[in-house]
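Journal club side-thread
Mid-discussion, someone asked how the predicted structure for our own chain would compare to the paper's figures. Pasting it here so we can look after the session.
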Amino acid sequence: MVDPSEAGPVLAALKETGWRLKHILNTHHHHDHIGGNNALKQATGAHIAGPEKDRHRIPDLETGLSEGAVYSVGTRKLRVLEVPGHTSGHIALVFDEDEAGVQRRHAVLARLRAGRSAFAPSAYRAPILRSADGRSRCLASATVASTS
């Protein structure tokens, strides 16, 4: 589960499908992305992972993720990119290979150039946008999903 704002709908979907929640992944610390963490962890025992830079802002964070880290979800590997902009600790999670081993990047990304920068005074916005431009150019052609 990525960025659960609340537990109720997730728990209902788990019950309906019979699926089991093992991982809760947070891309940043805002409440609309972590609000369901605690209740989901209590109900399912799922492991909470998210940005190391937001460790002090995400209650019950068990695994802090930083640039270049790899996090396993089943047999799939997610590579971590730090993408500050919306928040200073924002991360993106990238699947580098599909089941056939074909190199394709399926990314769960924050919109790198859209939205507001919640932390940066204007003096810091230019470097953030330059960083976002570089990241979005290298991933944009293969991105199949993005979050807002």
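Post-session note: Strands lie at 23-25, 47-51, 63-65, 70-73, 76-82, 91-97, 103-110, 145-147.
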